[in-house]
Amino acid sequence: MLLNKPRTRLELTEIAIPTPKPGEILVKVEACAVCRTDLHLIDGELAKPKLPIIPGHEIVGTVTESQSEQVKIGQRIGIPWLGWTCGQCQFCLTGRENLCENALFTGYTRDGGYAEYTVADERFCFPMPAAYNDPAVAAPLLCAGLIGYRSLVMAGPPDRIKKLGIYGFGAAAHLVAQVARHQHRQVFAFTRRGDSTGQRFALKLGAAWAGASDELPPELLDAAIIFAPAGSLVPLALQAVDKGGRVVCGGIHMSDIPSFGYDLLWGERTLCSVANLTRQDANEFLRLAPIAGIRPSVTRFPLAEANEALDAVRHGGLDGAAVLVV
Fold it and tell me: Fewest CB atoms less than 10 Å from the CB: which of 113, 174, 231, 278?
């Protein structure tokens, strides 16, 4: 499913099976989850994509060609958003490869998983835990899970951050909520006003409270994560966190943040963004997920219905993640 130019529909296209370069592997895609980042790409909100581009960066598949000692033919692996880093810039050299000046990203600057086959740098692929033998269920772990996990770590440790707010209860949020509950945190879920379905879903996953995004929670929060791409939520989240609290913006794109009074930031509150992920994040989360009993909730679509899956994510109403099954 090919994007030829932004703000157009994906086109079902027959192309040659890609040939892996040295250091790459060829993967037969089994499933690829649909991320809101894919919408930002298609809507032209992400600068300088490779065009035409095959989107998709939450990929689970089977290795069909490999010259690596580490990645074996027949092995089921996951391919995430971060697809390659230079290893030489100031960020790579200081353990911050997620900020690499020259990074390449799956489904954005290199072809992704809305296809029957894809190639990937063997260093940026991860063995999938045996507990996730259904590739469609496993696929959301590769971005919704990984970026959600990084956001949760940045929000603060569980011994200090006990009351966690989550704004936008979609694919990432429903996985983060499960990790937070495993860590004995209280989750306060915020959805669009009138989204009773999303609020019921949050409560089913163990949230202590669920309400509209423009509401204040029943008690002040220790931290909050914003997954919805709405800048207007930033001052609302700052208002909801207690002194010393942190608001983490977990998306790659957000609408403009409105001005707000300094009193919302005062009291040593902090505001930060999350950019991409590191391989350490992936290794930590994929070890934790089966221990914590993380179970993604998915709605399956055939590959040829990628546009319909994207529409479903755009308009909301899904419990969890949309996944393309190849």
Answer: 231
Residue 213 has pLDDT above 90, yes or no: yes
Query: Residue 67's pLDDT is what?
Result: 87
Torsion of CA 259, 263, 268, 272, to 10 degrees: -10
Domain interval for residue 252: 145-273
Strand duo 221-226 + 163-167: pairing: parallel
Per-residue confidence (pLDDT) for residue 39, from 0 to 100: 97
CATH of the domain at 192: 3.40.50.720
Paired sense of beta strands 186-191 and 209-212, if any: parallel
Residue from 1, 32, 37, 17 nearest 229 by CA: 37
Whole-angstrom Cα distance, residue 28 to residue 44? 28
In a domain, 49, yes or no: yes
Q: How confident is the model at residue 68 (pLDDT cuts 50, 70, 90)?
A: confident
End-to-end alpha carbon distance in the chain: 11
> How much is the average pLDDT of 19-29?
96
Q: Which residues lie below 8 Å from residue 163, measured CB to CB, with a gap of 6+?
A: 185, 186, 188, 219, 220, 221, 222, 223
Q: Do residues 114 and 216 both lie within one domain?
A: no
Is pLDDT of 69 > 90? no
Q: What is the pTM of this model?
A: 0.96
